[in-house]
Amino acid sequence: EFHPLTPHHPDGYVPVGLLSRPALEIASWPRPVMVLFLRTAGYLGVAHALALPIAAMLGAALLAPFAISRLTGEWPSPIAVLGYFVLLFTHPQFYFHHRHDATAGLATLFLFLSFMGAVSWLQAPAWSRYAWTLVLTALMALSKETYALSLPFLVGALCLLDWRNSRWKRTLALIGGVCA
Q1: 163: CB partners within 8 A, 6+ apart
Q2: Residue, of 42 and 146, whose pLDDT is higher
Q3: CB of 60 within 8 A of CB of 103?
Q4: CA angle 134, 160, 165 (to 5 degrees)
């Protein structure tokens, strides 16, 4: 019988094990945001620490329709959203994979938030929106560095759409900031 909050692999004990390390030491490791996230989850104990990566992925999944609506200006079809959630949450690999690869869930959450920030900044520029986009981009890259390749492509495509509106200075600033 499968229990999502029961460790099935030695990686399930990592969050609690990280509590024996000082936070400043962990902050110098690769993927420091992710490791600090796991260390924080360790305070919940072995069983409940596995819930935080699942919660991060659930948050990212729930943000997907909002990101689509932010980009297109329209809410996706309720049937499509319902179908997306049913297919995603009923698939048995959802609960296994996101417990095992916690970095993907947290980085995806930051990816969607950063993308939504980029859309907001292109629609109504303000330094605070630009700064939030860059901060979220940094958090994403420090959670899982391979995602640092995904966001510039998404933002680049977004900026190509915006380029037609003769706002090329903002577009270049956004692409430069995200790529940095």
Answers
A1: 171
A2: 42
A3: no
A4: 100
